[in-house]
Write a structure and sequence with these properties.
Pfam families: ADH_N (PF08240), ADH_zinc_N_2 (PF13602). Residues 12-330 form the Enoyl reductase (ER) domain. InterPro entries: ADH-like_N, ER, GroES-like_sf, NAD(P)-bd_dom_sf, YIM1/Zinc_Alcohol_DH_Fams. It comes from Spirosoma linguale (strain ATCC 33905 / DSM 74 / LMG 10896 / Claus 1). The protein is an alpha/beta fold and 333 residues long. The protein folds into two domains: 2-125 and 302-331, Quinone Oxidoreductase, Chain A, domain 1, CATH 3.90.180.10; 127-277, Rossmann fold. Helix content is 31%, strand content 26%. Helix 7 (216-222) links the parallel strand 12 and strand 13 (226-234). Helix 3 crosses helix 4 (156-167). The protein is globular.
Length: 333
């Protein structure tokens, strides 16, 4: 089968389209005929080796973290799916590889595709929707009547997080370019801040939660807009030692990550703010819950561009440019 892969970590080198062996289907796996695959900044970070200490992948490595497709085979212990089911998933770390014609995924990481959206729309959701869910529901425990500041509202995570936060009953502030304001209002944003001309630090105060997706400087500024007892969840670092423990990383990686996050954790503690770093994990159960919200019209996928499979490198370059409004997807069908 055809797949896009890398043979070494290198930010500058593009993915190679190559013939690779068919996936091995374990007893609890389903084999998926890939119809569409979403792209994320995580793909670029994996390609450059940013996570090689905690995700020691072997080469050649098939790329890709988001998928929608049809089940063509099930392992002998699979109970949740059957041949012909339409599914969407974010395969677990260590088993990525959605930029391919087929992929085997553990059934626990898979959910039935929402019936009211296309394969392309479904492929845009898993990683960003799981990130939003794990940030706002699991870690921040966002509740009705609270306020949340979601950075980069027009990005892949932002567009879904805004919708989820509104569903949870929160007041939502976000940053974006003025050209995106109308679209973000329709998604549910209450307070819109032009990141080019305005400083959120001077406009926001006493927020319950911040979802940080930007650099360390922005993260530090975010602490000033959160009330004591509030929560800051960051998906862009610095990682804490908990991530190294979660990934069973070597002892020295745990120490390094602890040191990297020492400064921000100390500043958060002084302000009585809970700082959490999130490296999202696969969860078919959470995707099932998200799928219910999609089918109810509460969460709508936001797809910017769709590329044919053969143009996966162009699609990833567009994601890396930072210009995408919502998600970028490659289509195989």
């Amino acid at each position: 089968m055809k797949a896009f892969l890398i043979n070494k970590y290198d930010k500058a080198v593009t993915m190679q389209l190559a013939d690779v062996p068919e996936p091995l289907v374990n007893d609890t796996d389903i084999l998926v005929d890939v119809h569409a695959a979403g792209l994320n900044l995580l793909d670029s970070k994996v390609k450059s080796g940013e996570f090689k200490l905690i995700l020691p992948y072997k080469f050649p490595l098939i790329m890709g973290h988001d998928v929608a497709g049809v089940v063509t085979q099930v392992g002998k212990r699979v109970k949740k799916f059957k041949v012909g089911d339409e599914i969407y998933a974010r395969p677990a770390d260590g088993r990525i590889g959605t930029f391919a014609e087929r992929i085997a995924i553990d059934e626990n990481d898979v959910a039935l595709k929402p019936k009211n959206i296309s394969m392309v729309e479904a492929a845009s959701l898993p990683l960003v929707a799981l990130t939003a869910w794990q940030s706002l529901v699991e870690l921040a425990h966002l509740k009705k009547g609270q306020s949340v500041f979601i950075q980069a509202g027009s990005g892949g995570v932002g567009t879904i997080a805004i919708q989820l936060a509104k569903h949870l009953g929160a007041k939502v502030a976000t940053t974006a370019g003025v050209a995106s304001f109308d679209a973000l209002k329709k998604l549910g944003a209450d307070v819109l801040i032009d990141y080019k001309t305005q400083d959120f630090e001077t406009l926001l105060t006493n927020y319950d939660v911040v979802l940080n997706s930007q650099d360390t400087k922005t993260l530090e500024k975010s602490l000033t807009v959160v009330k004591p007892g509030g929560t800051v969840v960051s998906i862009s670092g610095p990682p804490t030692g908990d991530l190294a423990v979660q990934k069973n990383a070597p002892w020295f990686v745990k120490i390094v990550m602890g040191l990297l996050s020492m400064g921000i954790r100390g500043k958060a503690k002084k302000r009585n703010i809970d700082y959490q770093f999130l490296f999202m994990r696969a969860s078919g159960q959470q995707l099932t819950e998200i799928g219910k919200l999609v089918e109810a019209g509460i969460i709508k996928p936001v797809v910017d561009k769709v590329y044919p499979f053969g143009q996966a490198n162009d699609a990833l370059a567009y994601v890396e440019s930072g210009r995408a409004k919502g998600k970028v997807v490659i289509s195989l069908k």
